Amino acid sequence: MALSPTAAQRRIIAAADPATGRLKGPEAQLTALVKRGLAFRHPRPPHDHFLTPAGHRIREQPAGDEAPGAAGQPPAPAADGVFSARVGGEDPAPADGPARVREVRGAWQGLLELRRMTRSDGATELPCGWERTHLVQAAALALEAAGHTPATGDGDGYRVRATPQPEAVAVHQPDGTALRECAVTLERAGWQVGEHTDPRTRVRYLLASPRRV
C-alpha cells in the first residue's frame, strides 16, 4: 500500500500543470512519487513525469479533506496504492457525497491524461496499459465516472468482477435496462462489450475487454 507523500511531494503535486498533470521538481522526489503510484515517467524523451489517476485525486482534494489512512488511498481498500473505483458490493461502501464525486472526477481525468501521454498519437479513445493490468478497477472507474450506481451489499446496482478470460471482466446488473446502459458507457470508454447469458442461472451479464484498435 502506498505511503503518504511528504510535505515536499505534496507541494510538487499541487504545482502540477492543471491541464496535463506534468510535474516539476527534484529527481529524487519525482522518483519517490512514482514509487508511491502517484506519478509516472513518460517513456519517450524528455521523460517528463506526470500525475497518475491517484495523483490527480490528491491534487483535486481541498486542504483538510483527505480521507483517513495513507494518502492516495480512497475510502475503499486499494490493492496497489492507486485510486480504487467502486466495483460494487463493497462492505462497507465508500461514502457518497461531494468529496467522492471530486475523487472520481479527478481519477477519470487523470486516466484520460494517462491515455493521452502514453500513446504516440495522443489519443484518449482507447484504454492504456494501466487499464489492461487493472481491468476491474478500470471498468469500474468508467462506470462510476459516468454516474452508474454500484451495488451496495446485496442490493441492486452494477458489479464488476474478474473472469478466467484474459483481458476481460464481467459486469453484472440485475436491471436489464441499466445493464444495457452500462454497455453503452463502456463502449464509449473504449471497451469492446458483449451481452451473454449464464448457462446455469440464465442471468444476463456483460463481458467487456479493452479495445486495441
Automatic annotation (TrEMBL):
Residues 64-81 have a biased composition (Low complexity). Residues 1-26, 59-98 are annotated as: Disordered. It comes from the Bacteria. This is Uncharacterized protein. It comes from Streptomyces plicatus.
